[in-house]
Design a protein that fits this description.
The complex is a heterodimer of chains A (about 350) and B (about 625). Helix content of chain A is about 30%, strand content about 20%. With about 350 residues, chain A is an alpha/beta fold. Chain A starts with a helix and ends with a strand. The longest helix of chain B is centred in the middle third of the chain and has 21 residues. Chain B has an 8-stranded mixed β-sheet with strand order 7-6-5-2-4-3-16-9, sandwiched between helices. A 7-stranded mixed β-sheet of chain B has the order 11-10-12-13-15-14-21, with helices on both faces. Chain B has a 5-stranded mixed β-sheet with strand order 18-20-19-22-23, with helices on both faces. The relative contact order of chain B is 0.09. Chain B folds into 3 domains: about 220 residues, 3-Layer(aba) Sandwich (Pyruvate-ferredoxin Oxidoreductase, domain 3), CATH 3.40.920.10; about 190 residues, 3-Layer(aba) Sandwich (Rossmann fold); about 110 residues, 3-Layer(aba) Sandwich (Rossmann fold). The radius of gyration of chain B is 26 Å and the shape is globular. Classes of the chains: A alpha/beta (about 350), B alpha/beta (about 625). At the A-B interface, strand 1, strand 2, helix 3, helix 5 and helix 11 of A face helix 1, strand 9, helix 9, helix 11 and helix 12 of B. Strand 12 of chain A pairs antiparallel with strand 9 of chain B, so a sheet runs across the interface.
Chain lengths: ~350, ~625
């Protein structure tokens, strides 16, 4: 079952560098766009992925749909394919199933993944091919210049919601977990270190790894994540989850999360006799998605937004299941060649 | 069919139509008779006619399922106009199928099913067996249900289980009528019901009972025999068009060394291809049942990018959904085979009926200037060769190919001479070797104008493809106006030049003069039968039948200019005729069209062609 995985983990002699993945094409995102930092992080992570998982530089494939983020493949020196709107998950699945030895990266946005590609999004999460899915969530349509997306908060005024959006938004993490996805992480475009850690964790996870990147669209939705990312507000409004560690946050890690009844609640250490021992300890590996779902749902101001790897559960990948079946059928099938098949069953001879 | 007394009458050919309720097992009965026909050495073609509902209300006309077989001593090109023998298992099936029986056809009915209630459900105002409705027919009123129950009495089956094999009683009667050895069918029961010996026994007993009933009845004053067909030496089997399509693709995979990736979504009448290919993982044939038609085709493009023989299968509504993605395959110039098993449209239309009405959609149904190769299989067995060629052209010319088949050949079956895969033409995909210093993503082959296939994982060939317009040669994103025009023309010319790699158009009939009948795709069998019969009557009629539509064969002008009149016959409102008017406007095209979800009948074609000849 792990045959394919084992093949990949052979150590590699050649050391890859960031320069191996930099493209000679002009990067045409707006100055100040969060995408630049994401691109840099990915270029930094690929050599680490190569080193730790044994991928050669020609074994990386970057796939995308449509939107600002989806220009990404053109800005990387890898094999790449820029698809059509919403369908990158299907492209990635076809590539990975055809050649499981490739490291497949999917770049998409909130419009691409949550609206036109919503169907493919839930199905890739369910099927679990080993694809690293980076979803840039800026809660707006950027490339078409400022319409509300399925993640735009209700009430927000945009070009197509001049009275304020009437629609409740999706939370991508809830969708992933609802679709029985095995890996969900969240990061922000202003934290290069965290991005690289999360991207590497996504790569190392064997299965579909969906990463939501809170990305800022400087032109059409500037500061949409300010509460979570702002210098003055971030300490109280984000929590970095680490496996095996208590869920603490705040400037001096003085706050923590506890389970009260069926809900998460913020408590302060030292208040009402609360000690670190009372705080929930993060375990991303539990099959039971209950706490993961609550963590993915958290949003300020009531609760801090969860960052880091929220869920990472081992499960057989689609391509391992399919290719193991191929190997099995090769052994048991009576048809070794197509000629065998053509001549099988009811045939007759004319002399 | 003329009946003479007390003997075995030799026939050239015959048509049998089995009809019953959708749950009566008529498709199985038909296919078992087909197997027996193959064994008897006849040439044959079959055509199922079933409703789109799985089990429409029992006993109603909308729930009737039929299966027609045309078999003979000579070459059989059609599934037959009208039946010589009609088996009707209930009043509804008689009602629905009487129009498909010849005036003097033998009609075999299950008299036990002709109850007042069933007659009413079927909408008969009076019992057709008792009024003059069936005058001219030999009607065999067999107590099929009762005798079936009787035959299996000692097996202690409940009534429902017992009646399940009543179709075998009918088959037994037909086996007697055509002098077939019914014991040959036993092995089928033994395989199919391996886990249930009682059911094996029941089917055997009922089949035998049907045969014996017919023999002792003495209602048939004679039986029939059809001599072996004079088929060419070789191994034969029976194939449906969908099976042949799947196998042609497997052969192309083996011959080209490219594994199959197939992404498809179930849709009638194309699903059988997905189901068949899903069985053959041993050939490293990867099939993925996608979440929708779009994911099917897009994952196929992913498979193609990653180096697979990439295939998606669908029917008309699915082709509509795939349009945008096919455009992506056009601009990325990746090989892909899109099989469209056409059905009646628009929208959901007639899912289980056949039509040739997706031609314009296949040719032009995409945004932008988006040419693809369009081909059409001409028969169930030709679907094997057409699918093989579609895969060859797609990979060698680096382009999507739409292969049109339709419900009539997808579900219809005929005799297939089994080829050797090694005898099929070579397939050499233009795969780039690692570290080729001359590789450029959009550098083209000087003859074909195809770009090369640089497969991810290969060292030294990293490149980006995508839906944005690309600069000639380098493949970088480009918005340059003149580059876009150049690339637009290059994509068209690449497809046009395929004409140099496909056979020229051959005419069946006279080289010159008279009427040229033009058809394409699945109508070949019925058109050639009509043309041959008219020629036998001394009329100057010839057939030019098209398998390659985009591009057309390079000698169309030359061929068309040899005839006085041209008539284009197709199962739509005239899409191919209009395409010819556009591509070859120097000729005048008459049309003969039928859009009833049914194939042409030889008789109606002959009448039409004859009238047109004399105009």
């Amino acid at each position: 079952m792990t045959k394919i995985m084992e093949q990949k983990i052979e150590p590699q002699q050649l050391v890859l560098t960031k320069q191996d993945f930099e493209s000679d094409q002009m990067v045409k995102w707006c100055p100040g766009c969060g995408d630049h930092a994401i691109l840099k992080s990915v270029e930094n992570v690929f050599p680490l992925v190569g080193e730790q998982m044994g991928y050669k530089k020609e074994e990386f494939v970057v796939v995308s749909g449509i939107g600002c983020s989806s220009r990404f493949p053109y800005y990387m020196n890898t094999y790449g394919i820029h698809g059509i709107h919403g369908r990158a998950a299907a492209l990635a699945m076809g590539i990975k199933l055809t050649n499981p030895k490739l490291s497949v990266w999917l770049i998409s946005g909130d419009g691409d993944s949550m609206a036109i590609g919503g169907n493919h999004f839930i199905h890739i999460a369910r099927r679990n091919p080993d694809v690293n899915y980076l979803m840039f969530n800026n809660k707006i349509y950027g490339l078409t210049k400022g319409q509300y997306s399925p993640t735009t908060p209700k009430g927000q005024k945009t070009k197509t919601s001049p009275q304020g959006s009437f629609e409740p938004p999706f939370n991508p993490g809830e969708l992933v977990i609802g679709a029985r996805g095995k890996f969900f992480a969240r990061t922000i475009d202003t934290n290069l270190k965290l991005m690289q850690e999360v991207f590497l964790a996504a790569a190392l996870h064997h299965g579909t790894s969906i990463v939501e990147i809170l990305q800022n669209c400087v032109i059409f939705n500037n500061k949409i994540h300010a509460l979570i990312t702002g210098k003055d507000t971030k300490e109280d409004n984000q929590i970095l989850l680490e496996a095996g560690q208590p869920m603490l946050f705040g400037k001096n890690k003085e706050k923590g999360l506890v389970l009260e009844g069926t809900s998460l609640k913020v408590v302060k250490l030292g208040e009402n006799g609360i000690t670190e021992a009372d705080i929930l300890v993060h375990d991303p590996t539990t099959e039971d998605a209950g706490i993961h779902m609550m963590l993915a749902s958290m949003a300020p101001p009531e609760l801090p937004a969860a960052l880091g790897v929220i869920r990472a559960v081992k499960s057989e990948t689609l391509e391992d299941a399919v290719w193991n079946s191929v190997e099995h059928e090769k052994e048991v099938s009576p048809y070794k060649t197509v000629d065998d098949l053509l001549n099988s069953g009811n045939t007759w001879k004319v002399e | 069919m003329t009946i003479k007394k007390d003997k075995v009458v030799e026939l050239e050919a015959a048509v049998i139509r089995f009809a019953g309720d959708s749950g009566d097992g008529m498709q199985l009965t038909g296919s078992l008779f087909s197997d027996s026909t193959a064994f008897a050495g006849n040439d044959f073609a079959t055509f199922p006619d079933f409703p789109s509902e799985i089990r429409a209300p029992q006993g109603t006309v909308s729930g009737v399922s039929g299966f027609q077989i045309h078999f003979g001593h000579k070459s059989i090109h059609t599934t037959g106009d009208l039946a010589d023998v009609l088996v009707a298992m209930n009043p509804a099936s008689l009602k629905a199928n009487l129009i498909w029986a010849k005036r003097d056809a033998i009609i075999i009915v299950d008299i036990d099913a002709f109850t007042e209630k069933n007659l009413e459900k079927a909408g008969w105002e009076s019992n057709p067996l008792e009024d003059n409705m069936l005058i001219g027919h030999l009607v065999i009123q067999a107590p099929v249900s009762n005798m079936t129950r009787e035959a299996v009495r000692e097996l202690d089956l409940d009534n429902k289980s017992a009646l399940k094999s009543k179709n075998m009683f009918a088959l037994g009667i037909i086996f007697y009528l055509f002098n077939r050895d019914y014991t040959k069918t036993y092995s089928f029961f033994e395989t199919k019901f391996k886990k249930n010996p009682v059911i094996i026994e029941a089917n055997k007993k009922v089949l035998e009972a049907g045969f014996n009933y017919a023999e002792t009845l003495e209602a048939f004053t004679n039986t029939f025999r059809i001599e072996k067909a004079s088929l060419r030496k070789g191994h034969y089997r029976n194939v449906t068009g969908n099976l042949a399509t799947a196998w042609g693709l497997l052969a192309a995979s083996e011959r080209s060394g490219r594994n199959i990736y197939l992404g498809s979504y179930p849709i009638t009448p194309a699903t059988d291809i997905l189901q068949e290919l899903a069985k053959h993982k041993q050939f490293t044939c990867i099939t993925q049942q996608a979440e929708d038609e779009i994911a099917g085709v897009v994952s196929t493009i992913g498979g193609s990018f990653a180096g697979a023989l990439a295939i998606t299968t669908t029917s008309g509504p699915g082709l509509s959904l795939k349009s945008e993605a096919i455009g992506l395959a056009v601009i990325t110039e990746l090989p892909m085979v899109i099989v469209d098993v056409q059905r009646g449209g628009p929208s959901t239309g007639l899912p289980t009926k056949s039509e040739q009405s997706d031609l314009m959609q296949a040719l032009y149904g995409r945004n932008g200037e988006a040419p693809v190769i369009v081909m059409a299989a001409t028969s169930a067995s030709d679907a094997f060769y057409s699918a093989y060629e579609a895969a060859k052209l797609a990979m060698e010319h680096m382009t999507p190919v739409i292969l049109l088949t339709d419900g009539s050949i997808g579900n219809g079956s005929e005799v297939f001479k089994i080829p050797k895969v090694a005898d099929l033409p070579e397939i050499i995909p233009p795969i780039v070797k690692a570290n080729d210093p001359d590789y450029k993503p959009y550098k083209r082959d000087p003859d074909k104008l195809s770009r090369q296939w640089a497969i991810p994982g290969t060292a030294g060939l990293r490149h980006r493809l995508g839906g944005l317009e690309k600069e000639d040669i380098s493949g970088n994103v480009s918005q340059d106006p003149l580059n876009h025009e150049k690339m637009t023309y290059l994509r068209q010319e690449k497809v046009d030049r395929v004409a140099n790699f496909i056979p020229t158009l051959k005419v069946e009939g006279d080289e010159k003069g008279g009427l040229l009948v033009v058809g394409w795709g699945s109508t070949h069998g019925v058109l050639i039968t009509a043309v041959e019969e008219l020629r036998a009557e001394g009329k100057s009629v010839s057939l030019a039948h098209f398998k390659h539509i985009m591009p057309l064969p390079r000698n169309v002008n030359e061929v068309f200019s040899n005839y006085d009149k041209i008539i284009v016959c197709e199962i739509n409102m005239g899409q191919f005729a209009n395409y010819l008017r556009m591509t070859h406007p120097e000729f005048k095209y008459e049309q003969y069209n039928k859009v009833q979800g049914l194939p042409f009948m030889v008789s109606e074609l002959k009448t039409k062609l004859d009238t047109f000849l004399n105009d």
